[in-house]
Amino acid sequence: MKKILIVFFGVLVFQGSVWAYGGEDAKCDAGDPYTQECHAQGLSPCWDMTAHPSYPAQSNPWVVGETVLQNDKLKECRQVCAINDTCWQDKWLDDAGDLSCVVGGNQIKLHMLLFADWNTANYRIGKAACK
User: Fold this and answer.
1) Is the pLDDT score of 62 beyond 70?
2) How far apart are CA 20 and CA 31, in angstroms?
3) For the chain, which residues make up each domain, given as ranges?
4) Phi then psi dihedrals of residue 66, to 5 deg
5) Which residue(s) pair with 95 in the sheet?
6) Contact partners, residue 100, CB within 8 Å, separation at least 6
7) What is the dihedral of CA 108, 109, 115, 117, to 10 degrees?
8) What's the Cα-to-Cα distance from 19 to each of 14, 22, 52, 124, rounded to whole Å?
9) What confidence score (pLDDT) does residue 73 get?
10) Rounded to two decimals, what is the model's pTM?
11) What is the mean pLDDT of residues 28-40?
12) What is the per-residue pLDDT for 26?
């Protein structure tokens, strides 16, 4: 009976540590890396200009937060960029494929939106910069 209790207690302790660890990965506070979980919560991504001051960035700049400019019509486009880990690398358009977002009720390919509305790379990220 003692061995069964020891095994049972060990399983509970192990499972508790797994649950505790799992919760740490799903943080979606302001400034945390933007993940699928953050997207599922409807949170907005922005470009972390402190760590990534220019385009192209050295690593993924998308974090949870609000943009300096209130451009909510582009929120879904930022979400598509963030959850697909793109829009920040040099020549990212070569790998963007059919990624698209909705702007003003219209489905638009990311590369079309970027070329149509934004003139330069640094102007582009300026529209997505965190407050």
Assistant:
1) yes
2) 21
3) 30-126
4) -100, 150
5) none
6) 80, 107, 108, 109, 110
7) 20
8) 9, 5, 33, 40
9) 80
10) 0.70
11) 96
12) 65
